[in-house]
Design a protein that fits this description.
The protein is an alpha+beta fold. It is built from 24 helices and 22 strands. The structure holds zinc ion.
């Protein structure tokens, strides 16, 4: 999984049912899930069969199943006794050691979480999608919350004909039946239940094939065909790179990536079927600002680390997130080069150091660690280890680890032992410093970076916190873009007309940090409105409008057709500035105000809605429609929007009193 905000602590608790794996091995599920357009948030008459083998004699077994109803329950086709407590389905029988059984039933449910129904009742953006990690698949599909029981899930879905249904594995067949379509998916290998997924929505797809012959399916909304290339850029290259780097073939039948509306995280690595936030669906200008590349590579790396080899418990969570973060970095290094790679490592070392200073650091083995620790410290462990034992040993050890533990569960020592075996020396000292200790070894990390990258040395030398004569020089002459950005952030008044001759990245820093625009930079500053960056355009439009009131009409006329990202960042600002420019009469102000209010509607994504609410509240113009949308946002599935809506409502209420 890839979180949008890194500060949250991720908890993956090993639940109390760990012991059932000693008694039963669940092997295969075959289920049919029925989405009925008439029932807006539920599934009904779903049929389910599960094959299992008894390892130790027992008189009952259970499945996790939240708020479901069951009918026609049978063991090997004979009616069986069961108990349903709303969380688990317990089935009673004389289960004999080494015998195989089939449990079957029909079930009904209205999931409250883990499966989300978006606008299913409207004609708008109808979507259903799932999120199993941290939420439990057992909220929509009877399964096993414990990650340690891996099952082959072969799922079928019945849905209205107008929709595509995408799930784990290979699409085996598809039948139209009256107004519905039956989609039959097939998995060949087992996975933990949290990785089961389904998406229902209106999609087209583009397919490429990896060097090794795996179909790579890129899904997109029908209206987004021009965004497919920039959104999925480098997908195949990263796929081929990871297979080669890991020395272990991609373990599943195909690889699908599906954007969804208002997703809970940046992305989620469901087995062979990654779901990601449609905020990453971008055009070729947006690509320069925020691409999907890192999330794309991260979720792809999880197909090995997490999906194929799964951590036994929350203590070892870094074996998933640390590996996914590190291999995403390696894939990016292959595309953007060494400097990019070292700069990312530098940034994460700085963040980890700060976390310790703030007193929030933890051992990497603490299951309550922050995402920063699991992801970035985890990646640093791998970089540190590789630097210590050398590329050859590191790569071979990772390949061996994947070979040995494929389709099973692991803990930290399993990985370290594989490296020790090839390295020939104990790594206890390394593990203690980098993994176990509460503090991140920030000095060792910096020493390593300095010994590996002249680029980082140069970056560290540039420092204009206290301005020196050197700083102005550094902006003029050759230092890296990142170093120039650092100078501009620390001393924006050093920017001259020449600074504008730099790259998109440096120009973006000008738009971000130079907020008071000197007259002699005005003409150059105006050229920022032509940059291929929506962030630069948004910043520059606001700063120019603010600094030069006499030219507001000119700036508004120039940027009137620019929309920006999927959260319409430029358009939203443009509407607000236009409404605040009374003498600019090119547009119908009432129409613009209505447009602004309309962006608070649930059909728009959470970021756009939050920004629209924020502007309307600043303008003290949140009308009845806006207030009603704000009230409704409080019960949205996205917790960020909920938190925001609650705070803003309170604030509006206080201002009234
Ligand atoms: Zn992840």
């Amino acid at each position: 999984m890839k979180r949008i905000f890194a500060v949250l602590s991720l908890f993956l608790v090993c639940v109390s049912n760990a012991q059932q794996t000693d008694y039963v091995d669940f092997m295969r599920v075959e289920a049919l899930i029925v989405f009925n357009q008439l029932a807006v948030d539920s599934t009904a008459y779903n049929s389910y069969e599960i094959d299992f083998k008894i390892l130790k004699q027992t008189d009952s077994i259970y499945l996790d199943a939240v708020n479901m109803e069951f009918k026609h329950l049978a063991i090997n086709n004979s009616k069986a006794k069961f108990r349903n407590d709303g969380k688990r389905l317990v089935v009673y029988n004389n289960f004999e050691k080494d015998q195989e059984y089939k449990l079957s039933f029909i079930f009904f449910n209205s999931p409250k979480k883990a499966m989300y129904f978006l606008g299913w009742e409207n004609d708008g953006r109808n979507q259903i999608w799932t999120q199993g990690q941290g939420k439990y698949t057992s909220n929509w599909l009877p399964s096993i919350d414990d990650v340690n029981d891996k099952i082959e899930f072969d799922l079928k879905f019945l849905a209205p004909k107008a929709y595509k249904v995408i799930s784990n594995g290979k699409l085996k067949s598809k039948y139209d039946n009256l107004g519905n379509t039956l989609w039959e998916y097939d998995m060949e290998r087992p996975m933990s239940s949290y990785l089961v997924a389904v998406i229902v929505g209106k999609y087209n797809k583009k397919t490429e094939t990896s060097k090794s012959g795996i179909p790579l399916e890129y899904y997109f909304y029908p209206e987004d065909s021009l965004k497919v290339e920039p959104t999925y850029r480098y997908s195949k290259r990263m796929f081929d790179f990871l297979e080669e780097e890991l020395g272990f073939s991609y373990p599943w039948q195909n690889y699908k990536q599906v954007p969804v509306h208002d997703f809970l995280y940046a992305g989620m690595e469901n087995t062979s079927c990654t779901i990601f936030s449609d905020a990453f669906v971008i055009d070729s200008i947006g690509f320069n600002d925020k691409s999907y590349i890192n999330v794309n590579a991260h979720e792809l790396a999880h197909q090995w680390f997490g999906d194929l080899v799964t951590a036994k418990s929350g203590e070892h969570h870094w074996l998933q997130e640390g590996f996914a973060t590190y291999y995403a970095l390696l894939a990016e290094r292959d595309i953007f080069g060494d400097n990019h790679f070292y700069f990312k490592l530098y940034e994460s070392a700085v963040d980890l150091g700060r976390q310790d200073i703030a007193g929030n650091g933890t051992s990497l083995l603490n299951p309550k660690s922050s995402s920063l620790t699991f992801y970035q410290r985890g990646a640093w462990v791998l970089h540190g280890l590789r630097s210590k034992v050398g590329d050859k040993i590191f790569k071979q050890a990772v390949t061996n680890y994947l070979e040995k533990y494929q389709f099973t569960n692991v803990e930290t020592s399993d990985f370290i032992k594989e490296v020790e075996r090839l390295y020939g020396r104990p790594l206890a000292g390394f593990a203690n410093l980098w993994i176990k200790k509460k503090e991140f070894p920030v000095d060792s990390a910096f020493d390593l970076l300095k010994s590996q990258s002249t680029y980082i040395n140069e970056y560290l030398m540039v420092d204009c916190q206290v301005k020196t004569s050197k700083c102005a020089e550094q902006l003029k002459y050759y230092v890296s873009d990142e170093a120039k950005v650092k100078v501009i952030s620390q001393a924006p008044d050093l920017v001259t007309r020449d600074t504008f001759k730099n790259s998109l990245k440096v120009r973006q820093a000008i738009s971000q940090y130079v907020k008071k625009i000197p007259k002699d930079l005005k003409a150059d500053y105006e050229t920022l409105l032509d940059d291929r960056s929506y962030i630069t355009i948004e910043n520059a439009l606001y700063n120019l409008w603010d600094n030069f009131p006499e030219d507001r009409s000119k700036y508004l006329a120039k940027t009137r057709d620019i929309i920006g990202f999927s959260d319409k960042n430029v358009r939203l600002l443009w509407v607000v500035l236009n409404l605040n420019t009374p003498f600019y009469k090119a547009d119908n102000k009432q129409g613009l105000y209505e447009e602004l209010v309309s962006y608070t509607d649930e059909k728009y994504n959470a970021d756009l809605r939050m920004n629209a609410f924020r502007y309307l509240s600043l303008m003290k113009a949140c009308n009845d429609k806006c207030q009603s949308n704000l009230g409704q946002a409080k019960s949205h599935h996205n917790w960020r929007l909920v938190k925001f809506a609650k705070q803003l409502s309170e604030q509006i209420q206080q201002n009234k009193n």
